[in-house]
Amino acid sequence: MDTNQSDNNKSNQDDKQYLFDNPKNTQRVLYILYACCALLVVLDFVIHRHIYHSWENLPAFYPIYGFVGCVVLVFVARWMRTFLMRSEDYYDGPDDAHEQEHLEKVIEENSDDNAHQGANNQTENKKIGDHDVDA
After folding, report:
1. pTM reported for the whole predicted model
2. If residue 73 lies in a helix (H) or strand (E), which one and from where to where?
3. What's the CA dihedral at 8, 10, 11, 13 to 10 degrees?
4. Which candidate, 64, 60, 68, places its Cα nearest to that of 44?
5. Spatial separation of the C-alpha atoms in residues 32 and 20, rounded to whole Å
6. How many helices (H) and strands (E) does the chain have?
7. Distances from the Cα of 119 to the Cαs of 23, 112, 122, 126, in angstroms?
8. CA–CA separation, 112 vs 120, rounded Å?
9. pLDDT by residue (tens digit) across 55-95?
10. Taking a C-beta distance cutoff of 8 angstroms, is the pair 44, 59 a contact?
């Protein structure tokens, strides 16, 4: 009996409807967005702006400026993608077994050097003087 109730509770949780699961709500939000955009364009003709440049006085200058800026941004990003994009396996290890052995050898050599260097640094620090510092 308890397992049936828990299964019913799980199915009720899975069937829960969220705000944007209903297409009508999504459509309402889009209509509100369109209405706000239209209102802002209309207010652009009514509200007095303090302009600094003559082109700011053109009708709907700022919406056009924003749209052109976004389009330019997309084209620049597509151009930059040609030289910034890496292959899908860029961060994978080397494919060649010889390269893998070489990397392991270099890592092993560096780890030994670093361990000895750290020990030397500790002895040098002791020679300089002990500083009691409360952290």
Report:
1. 0.41
2. helix 61-84
3. 120
4. 60
5. 14
6. 4, 0
7. 67, 11, 5, 11
8. 13
9. 888 877 888 899 999 999 999 999 999 988 888 877 776 55
10. yes
